[in-house]
Inverse folding.
């Protein structure tokens, strides 16, 4: 996965409201983020699979970031 896609992932996370990041179940959150990323860039099936795994493995971090934004 190249660095521009990783930057895009975190940009989309930052653009997403904290309430969405905190309220959705894990699978629904991963799917939502993938949909939003897919609207911005054309992804291959392999890239979608890699991103699914990447985002899934960072759900706790994503939720921690959302909680800190909400508290600020």
């Amino acid at each position: 996965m190249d660095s521009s896609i990783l930057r895009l992932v975190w940009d989309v996370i930052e653009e997403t409201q904290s309430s969405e990041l905190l309220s959705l179940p894990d699978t629904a959150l991963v799917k939502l983020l993938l949909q939003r990323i897919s609207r911005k860039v054309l992804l291959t099936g392999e890239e979608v699979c890699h991103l699914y795994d990447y985002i899934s493995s960072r759900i706790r971090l994503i939720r921690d970031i959302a909680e800190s934004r909400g508290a600020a």
Observations:
- The first helix runs from residue 3 to 15.
- Residues 3-71 form one domain.
- The chain has a mean pLDDT of 95.
